[in-house]
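Weekly modeling sync, notes
Attendees: S.R. (lead), two postdocs, one rotation student

Agenda item 3: backlog of single-chain predictions. S.R. asked that every request posted to the team notebook include the full sequence so nobody has to chase files. The rotation student volunteered to paste the first one in as an example of the format we agreed on. Action items at the bottom.

Example entry:
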Amino acid sequence: MAGKRKTNEAGSTNNLRTDVLCVLGVLKAATADQIQRLSSPHLTYRHTTKETAAARKEARTASHRGALNDLRRHGLSVDGGRTRGGEEVRLLTKDGLAAAGLELDRGPEEMGGTPKSAGRSGASHAMTVNETILAMIRPKPDLHLVAGEPADAIAAAQAWVDASDGIGSIASYATEVALPATGTWKNPGVGCAWADLVLTAPEAGAPLLFIEADNCTENAAKIAAKFDKYMRHFHRKTKDTDGQDKPMWRTRWSAPDPQWGDATHPPVLLVFHQVGPRPALNQMKKVAALTREHWQGQGADGFHLYKGKMPIVATTLELLREHGPSGPVFWRFGREGRQSLWDAIGNPRRHAALARRDEEARRRIAQEAAEREAQRPACADCGQKFTDDRWKASIAVDWGRGDSHPRLCDDCKARALEAERQAEQAERDRQEQERQEEEAAQASKAGGWLGRWRS
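Predicted structure, as returned to the notebook:
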């Protein structure tokens, strides 16, 4: 134990340090509070009897702050300044990123670089990105680890467990991902788009989703310009391992075909955090107007088609925190009202229209089948309905000759034919018998004449 304490003086466990590495490997810059809420959500419901919020926060983040201190002693993490709220920001070093990559099973090109002085300017954007991930994942506490806490704490934990689920885990996300229009994945060209977040969670129905976080500080034109860069990347093609030209993004990520309700390109979610002076709702409307060429579909029969387009969806961090991805809080540019994330990035009206068409086709086929069935003849002998083959044969015409027994089923026809055959055979036998009898009579007469002549 003494040796362990010397190596890890803060006393953190291997599992705890691994959790911290994984979270920081994705987030790049985070506070102990964010790391704790992502990796050990049950701690949020502990230490609730402490008098102040600060004391409760100090207690619930103590183990993760210890793990961060141990990682710092090993040269895997560094202090990164403070947030505007005064919380310490932690970053990974180059060696820390490499260690995190091993835990996340990601190569160096997927891990990205280390942020530079994220906390010196308050790290407001990085914190919003982190809070967006928390709102998307909605980490659930293990109730067994909350046992023994006060009743109100257990009730709060249970309520969160019962609340709507989020999408994926920390390993489902990546931050600051280059989307090169020129250059390579490893060395993207100047002016490429950098996605704040990329979510890959096919098990949750979200095979690929790009996410942009904004603190309502940038003007709408600057935000809209980023979608031009997105579209340049989506249009870029390159040869895949099979030698075929494919969209470049498909050489890194996979998604089903069709992907998002017939849209050609992956969807992008805009999450606005009302920190800056620009109202989030106004920002959404302005960005929608400026990006119309990228998302506007073509009207069809009660729905829109989005071939060659990119679904753009917007919400606020506040609504996302409250309702999660399954809540009706997402506005798809070009649509009225709010939808769940899956409906917003998809095309439910098209699905409904196609389902109606399929149902109408099924009803029409069923009606035609019923009408045909009503016309199906029955056997005049046994009353059995004709089979399709028997019905077809009964009305077939072969060189001017129709069916010999068009009102009988196969079995009754076979019996009738057999009876006719037997009757014909009996008639032939009778005729043969008569012929033989007649010949015998004639022979008898001839024999009588001959005898009289001889005498």
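Discussion: group reviewed the output briefly. The chain has three domains: 1-121+141-163, 165-375, 381-444.
Action items: rotation student to repeat for the remaining queue; S.R. to check formatting next week.
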